[in-house]
Specification:
Strand content: 15-25%
Helix content: 25-40%
Radius of gyration: 39 Å
Number of helices: 14
Largest sheet: 9 strands, antiparallel
């Protein structure tokens, strides 16, 4: 119905445009042979007459073209009617102004000038006269205005069909968009931020394009339009996730407020709601080129020099129950077949607890938003000849366990604060980050993406790189970094990078016998030391 209204508005705009027809007719009639009225018009030249016809034609054509443009951009029949009446009103303003001038509203001089013009009459004695020598040309001049009007009508209708077909194909809509949403607004936000390309199979909903996440066209996020929510009947743009998400009105994760817009870019200005109806702010949606750096999927260089081992130590609860020192070794996993939820974990290094086996292991890995420390994970694999690396590379069970952790938050001990997924320096190692308890899942929500509860920090946990480097990560207290990345500790230092001083061990160590180290924790003072080798100072 809208397209029919658009076509009718274009036809009516042309047929109703008197300036267009008159300009063509007067031009081919030529300069009038007789004038009646103000004598100043008797000296008019052919060039002046033709210029006047051109200006009148231009005014009429612009009015028709404006009506056409506004009609094809209208989304409802009411919009077509409103835009048509608006252009009609504007095109009549010149006649209205002329009539007001005749009535003296713009002063006496303007009144006299408009009356002189209105009293002028033009006559062409040879108008539409056909003789035997110039019959073809005269016939054309007689019907030129009809030919011109129908020529313009045919051109605009052809253009209308082209625009209509292009609209139905979505050629005028954004082809690639970039979506950004804050972490706290939508779960898994970091996994779905990025570029979306129009559906590869041309899928449309309610004559609107759908969009698929670049790099994760099957398992990733999707934008589509719902023609009527099951509960309210409202129309809205929706966001959905996964291969099974095929019905925008049923499978949505988030939706806009009620809107009928065809333009996905307008959703940035709309209020968004979760599936449960909780308002969470705006998704920033902007057009981008497919070659834009924002559309690149991060693929970290696995040969980049990073920490090969991290050590974890500290306290895990308020009762100061000591977390035993654990070492986690860096490894990379086969990333073939990664889906949007597991892609960050499989492209970033995974740190595996040093005593882990395929049947029982602990991990530190990147979710796309944070690093997580897991509880002890149990698998059905009993080990045998399967190494931990082979298990992670080949066993589907390992992928399932990762997916369960990321999607449901199962078996998560601690979570870091958010880090930038697209910044290799921040997301390549968990060393030096602050750890938190995991935020509890909201009620009636089928997912529980591991997110830090900022109100429950665990500041007694220390995760440090245990691989030494003389420049970036040197050994402490005079220790020497060996070629294999381990430290040869001296002066009584111990632990990762020799950072643990021997203070208070009952043995006076001259290296720490100073005020900074409390005289070796009191070991070098006879009054405070308890041990076999006390009291040097």
């Amino acid at each position: 119905i809208v397209h029919v209204a658009q076509a009718l508005a274009t036809v009516i705009a042309i047929m109703d445009q008197d300036d267009l027809r008159s300009a063509i007719e007067n031009y081919f009639d030529g300069l009038p042979t007789r004038f009646k009225g103000d004598e100043m018009f008797e000296s008019m030249t052919v060039a002046q007459w033709n210029f006047a016809c051109f200006v009148r034609f231009l005014q009429g054509f612009l009015s028709v073209f404006a009506s056409f443009v506004l009609a094809v951009q209208s989304e409802t029949v009411f919009d077509v009617l409103l835009n048509f009446l608006g252009v009609k009103f504007v095109s009549e303003l010149d006649d209205l102004s002329f009539n007001l001038g005749q009535l003296g509203y713009f002063g006496e001089e303007c009144e006299r000038a408009t009356k002189r013009i209105s009293e002028v009459m033009f006559q062409q004695d040879n108008r539409n006269k056909v003789d035997g020598t110039d019959w073809n040309l005269s016939w054309f001049n007689k019907y030129a205005h009809v030919i011109g009007v129908f020529g313009i009508l045919s051109t605009l209708m052809g253009l209308f069909l082209y625009v209509l077909i292009s609209q139905l194909k979505g050629d005028f809509s954004a082809q690639v968009i970039n979506m950004q949403v804050a972490e706290g607004d939508v779960p898994f936000a970091a996994l779905f931020n990025g570029c979306y390309r129009k559906s590869s199979n041309g899928m449309q909903y309610e004559r609107r394009l759908s969009y698929e996440q670049v790099g994760f066209e099957v398992s990733g996020g999707k934008f589509a339009f719902c023609g009527g929510m099951s509960d309210t009947g409202e129309k809205a743009w929706v966001f959905m996730v996964g291969e099974d998400a095929t019905d925008p009105c049923r499978d949505l994760v988030a939706r806009t407020e009620a809107t009928d817009t065809y333009d996905i870019l307008e959703v940035s200005n709309r209020q968004w709601f979760s599936r449960e109806g909780v308002a969470f702010g705006n998704m920033e949606v902007s057009p981008v080129l497919e070659s834009s750096p924002d559309c690149r999927i991060l693929d970290l260089n696995r040969t980049q020099k990073i920490c090969d081992q991290v050590d974890l130590e500290g306290y895990i609860d308020r009762n100061q129950r000591e977390f035993p020192l654990k070492s986690f070794n860096k490894t990379f996993v086969n990333r073939a077949g990664a889906i949007v939820y597991t892609y960050p974990a499989l492209t970033h290094p995974i740190f595996v607890e040093s005593t882990s086996t395929p049947s029982s292991y602990e991990l530190i890995f990147f979710t796309g938003q944070s690093w997580v420390l897991t509880d002890v994970l149990k698998s059905k694999t009993t080990g045998g000849d399967v190494s931990m690396q082979e298990y992670m590379d080949t066993e589907p069970e390992f992928r399932s366990i990762l997916l369960s952790i990321v999607f449901n938050g199962t078996n998560v001990s601690l979570v870091t604060g958010s880090v930038a997924m697209n910044t290799a320096e921040l997301s390549f190692t968990p060393s030096g980050l602050r750890w938190f308890r995991m935020r509890e899942a909201a009620r009636n929500v089928p997912y529980n993406y591991p997110t830090a509860d900022q109100s429950r920090p665990v500041d007694d946990i220390l995760l440090s790189c245990a691989s030494c480097d003389d420049k970036e990560n040197p050994c402490s207290f005079g220790g020497k970094c060996l070629d294999d990345g381990t430290c040869a500790c001296v002066n009584g230092g111990s632990g990762a990078l020799c950072k643990v001083p021997p203070n208070g061990d009952g043995r006076c160590n001259p290296y720490f016998n100073n005020q900074v180290y409390g005289w070796d924790g009191g070991d070098c003072c006879g009054g405070t030391c308890k041990g076999p080798e006390c009291g040097l100072g």
